[in-house]
Amino acid sequence: MEVIRKNRLLAFWAIAAGLAAVLIWHLPWRFQVNDDEVMMWLVSGAYTGRPAPYAVFLHPLMSWCISGLYGLAPQLPWYPWLWFLGMFSSFVLLASLVQDKFGTALQGHVWTLFLFAFYIHFLFFLQFSIVSGFAIFAGLLARYGTVGKGGQQKTFFRPTDLFLVIGFLVRPEVLLLFLMGVFVLNLLFFREKWFFGLSFVPFLVAVVGYSISFVWISQSGLSEFERVNRLRSQVFDHPVLQLQKEEIKQSHPDLYHFSNGLIDFQNDPQLVGQLRHWKQELDAARWEDFGAGAVAKSFGTYVEHEHFLIGLMVLFSLFSLFFAGVKALRVLLALVLGMLALSPFFLLKVQIYGLVFLVLMLSVFCFLPHSPGQRPVSWLFASLVVLAVVFHFRSFFLSSANWVPAEGLDQRLGRLQADGYEDIFVIAPANVYSELLFHNPGRFKVMGWPTLLEQYQGKLPSDSRAYLVDSATYRGNEAYFEGDEMAGFESGLYLLLSRP
To answer: Where is the signal peptide (predicted)?
Structure first.
C-alpha cells in the first residue's frame, strides 16, 4: 500500500511539472542571458546559414548533437525544447528520490515543493547554466542520497549518471563547481569517507569530457579562438568592471562601452589586443578598489531583481534549521563566506546564487540527518511555499504587460534589408526582440562574442551596417556611436547608419 501511495505521489508531481512546462511554454518566458539566444542561432543555422557544431559555451558534443537535430528538422525549436525537457526530467528524478527517502511523509512534500518552485522559476527565466546545474544536482543526489540504503554497493555506473553527463555537456564548469563545493563542505563538516568513492564517476565524467573537448577544439583549429573568448569573458564578467562602471567611464571610455555590451570585434579587431591589457588593469584594481561597497552593490542588485528566488532561499534555510539543526546553519554560513571570499574574483550573478542554492540543498539532503519534526511546522512551510508558487504564477501571467510587440521592429528590419543593409544590429533588452527569436532570427545580430567568432572565421565586416539602439543604451554611450549617422527614432529605438 505504501508503494502505491508513493507511486501516486510521484505521478502527481510529474503531471504537475508537465502541465507547468506546457503552460510556461505558452507564456512569454525568456532566456535569462543572450548567450542562450546566440547559441540557439548558431546550432540552428540562423546565424551562419547552416547549423554550427560548435556553440562556444556548450560542450562540442552537445553542440554537434543539437545542430544535427536542426539539420533533420530545422523548423522545430530544438534548443529550448531540450532545455525544457532537461529541467522536467531532472525534476521528476528529484521528486522520485525525495519520495524514496521520506515516503509519503509531509516533510517530503515540502522538499518537493521547494524543488518545484525552483523548477518553475528557471523554466520561465531559462538559462543554460541552471539547466546544467539542475541535471547535475539530480545526478549527484541519486549518488550521494542512496547511502544508508545500500547505495555504496550498487553498480559502478548507474542509469542516473546520465544526468551528470548531460549536465556536463550543457555547461562543463558546473560539474566542477558542484564537486569542489561539496568536497570542501565534506572536509569541513561531514567527513564522510564514502563521499570520495561515490565521487569517482562524476570526476571521471569531467576528465573524459574535458579531454574530448580539448581534442575536438584543437582538431577544429579553434584553440586560439577558445583562448581569446575565455579572456574576453574574464574581462567582461570581471567584478571590478561590472560593479564600478561609472567610476571608469571618464578614465577608460572604451572599457566602459565594452562593459555595456558594445563589443564589436569584427569592426574593431584591435579590441583583441586590448583584452589582456584590460585584464591586467582590472586584476590590479581588484585589490585597490574592490571592497565592501562593491559586494553590497552586487548583492543589492540580486535582491532588487530576484525577490522570488531570494525568498525561496530564505525559506529553505529556515526549513533546514528546523529539520537538520545547527549543522545546516554551519553549511549555510560556509557557503555565504565562500561567496564573499570569491566575490573579488567572480561576478556573482543570479545563476551563481541558483547553483549555490542547489549545493546547499544537496548537502542538507544527503549529508545531514533529518528529524521528523512537528507537523504544524511542516504545514507552515508547505503553505508558505504554495503561496509563493501561486503568487509567482500570477506574476508570470502579468509579465505579458512588459512584453514589447515586435511588429514595429519586424517592419523596420524589413525596410533596412530592402535598402541593402547587410548587417543589422539590435542593441536593446531581450523583451524588445524576443518575439522574433524563433521566427527568422537571422535577420539581425547582437553585439558581443559572436563578432569575435566571425572575426576568427575570417568573415569581413560589412560596409553597410545599421544599428537599432534602445534609448537608455544610446544616452549612456553616445560617444561610441559618434562616427555613425543618426537616421531616426521610433518606438524607443534609435536608428544609426554606419558611414562607409
So the answer is: none
433, burial (CB in 10 Å: exposed 0-12, middle 13-18, buried 19+): buried
Report the half-sphere exposure of 171 (CA within 13 A, side-chain side): 23
Please check whether residue 359 is in contact with residue 182, taking contact to mean a CB–CB distance below 8 angstroms: yes
Instruction: Specify whether the backbone of 65 is left (phi greater than 0), alpha (psi in -120 to 50) or beta.
Output: alpha
Cβ(402)–Cβ(431) under 8 Å?
Answer: yes
Task: Name the pLDDT band for 291 (thresholds 50, 70, 90).
Answer: low
Give every CB contact of residue 423 below 8 A, 6+ residues apart in sequence. Answer: 445, 461, 462, 464, 465, 466
Alpha-carbon distance values, 480 to 166, 247, 319 (Å): 41, 17, 50
C-beta neighbour count of 389 within 10 angstroms: 20
**Residues in CB range of 474: below 8 A, 6 or more apart:** 481, 494
DSSP conformation letters of 113-141 = HHHHHHHHHHHHEE-HHHHHHHHHHHHHH
Q: Give residue 151's pLDDT.
A: 46
Class of residue 277 by CB neighbours under 10 A (exposed 0-12, middle 13-18, buried 19+): exposed
Q: What confidence score (pLDDT) does residue 150 get?
A: 46
List C-alpha distances in Å: 298 to 263, 275, 329, 334, 433: 23, 23, 23, 19, 27
Could you tell me the three cell numbers for 238?
570581471
Angle at 314 (CA atoms; ends 309, 317), nearest 5 degrees = 125
Other beta carbons within 10 angstroms of residue 123's beta carbon come to 24
Beta carbons within 8 Å of 258's beta carbon, 6+ residues apart: 235, 236, 241, 271, 278
CA gap 37, 438 in Å, rounded = 10
Q: Are 167 and 83 spatial neighbours (Cβ–Cβ below 8 Å)?
A: no
Mean pLDDT to the nearest integer, 275-302: 77
In this prediction the pTM is 0.93
